[in-house]
Amino acid sequence: MIIFLYGQDSYRISQKLKELFDGYKAKNISALNFISLDFTENGFEDLEMNLKFESLIPEKKLIVVKNILKAGEEKAVALLESYNLPTSREIIFIAIHWDEAPAKNELFQYLIKKPNFSSEFKPLSGARLKSWLVDLARSCGIDLDGEALDYLIENIGGDLWRQSREIQKIANYKIKGIVRLPDVQNLVNQKTGINIFDLTDAIGAQNKKRALLLWHKALEAGEEPVELLGLLAWHIRNLLKVKSAGSAARGLGLHPYVLEKTSRQAKSFEINDLKSILIKIGELDLALKTSTANPKTEFLGLIGELRSC
């Protein structure tokens, strides 16, 4: 069986993936045959090896591949066909593409055709966003009145990751009943105009002062430290890939805009600098997940890895 999830709404894709995994785990208790790959980090040979591997555990195999379209088109289609994955009852193959449909891509066309199951997750707006927020609030035991709902949409928009965090915060505060505008105004920060990609730009430019300022502002605006670190790790990995590839960087498959910006920033780093920062990000991520570390002060250790600007 092949299940293909794609689109720009990463929150709903992630929720659907969790739903599918929970369903798998309910029937395959040990989940020891679950494999997760990401084609920004794993190679094609990793997928081939896991498809070939025969487990001694008598449970179905679940393979999740994120960023599936970074695989070579013809080679990937041939591999999936060779294992009869569309009709397989022993392997559940879930492919993820965190973006809209590409103009031309043989692998994409293969994944969306029957008998495969495919779903597109477009960003929510207007009436669909309102309906989604109402349903989410009710699932948390609260009801939003019209003004409270409008306030959330005006100040957070279609960022479902933050909307879910804010509604959970409101539910924890209100406990039950109708949530009105004053409740939301007291608990939800207004838009600050911060683009968290500016933070990765400051890191890439080695601008310590601006990086610290943007980090603090992002936290005050309600961003989750762990999510910010994930974005930073993605950016530093791109810098490392571009720096290592040199003149061959165009073959990395990065979006032209990302490649141009990353190539410019990579000139300011040595490869060992980037590896050191990635290690620091991992240490900070672990500290935030396993202790009561203060994200504002702990981030200073990461910034200390940057040379003076």
Structural class: alpha/beta
State the distance separating the first and last CA atoms: 53 Å
H/E series: EHEHEHEHEHEHHEHHHHHHH
Number of domains: 3
What would the CATH topology of the largest domain be? Answer: Rossmann fold
The global form is globular
Helix content: 55-70%
Mean pLDDT, as a whole number?
83
Q: Approximately what portion of the residues adopt beta-strand conformation?
A: 5-15%
Number of contiguous helices:
14
The total strand number stands at 7
> In CATH's first tier, which class of the largest domain applies?
Alpha Beta
CATH superfamily of the largest domain: P-loop containing nucleotide triphosphate hydrolases
Question: How would you describe this structure to a colleague?
Answer:
The protein is an alpha/beta fold and 309 residues long. It has 3 domains: 2-120, P-loop containing nucleotide triphosphate hydrolases (Rossmann fold); 126-187, Helicase, Ruva Protein, domain 3; 196-303, Zinc Finger, Delta Prime, domain 3, CATH 1.20.272.10. The chain has 14 helices and 7 strands. It has helices at 10-27, 44-52, 73-82, 106-112, 126-139, 146-156, 160-174, 181-187, 196-204, 208-220, 225-245, 256-266, 271-290, 295-303, and strands spanning 2-6, 34-38, 61-66, 91-97, 117-120, 142-144, 177-179. β3 (61-66), α3 and β4 form a beta-alpha-beta unit. α3 runs parallel beside α4 (106-112), α9 packs antiparallel against α10 and α11 (225-245) crosses α12. Belongs to the DNA polymerase HolA subunit family. It comes from Candidatus Azambacteria bacterium RIFCSPLOWO2_02_FULL_44_14.
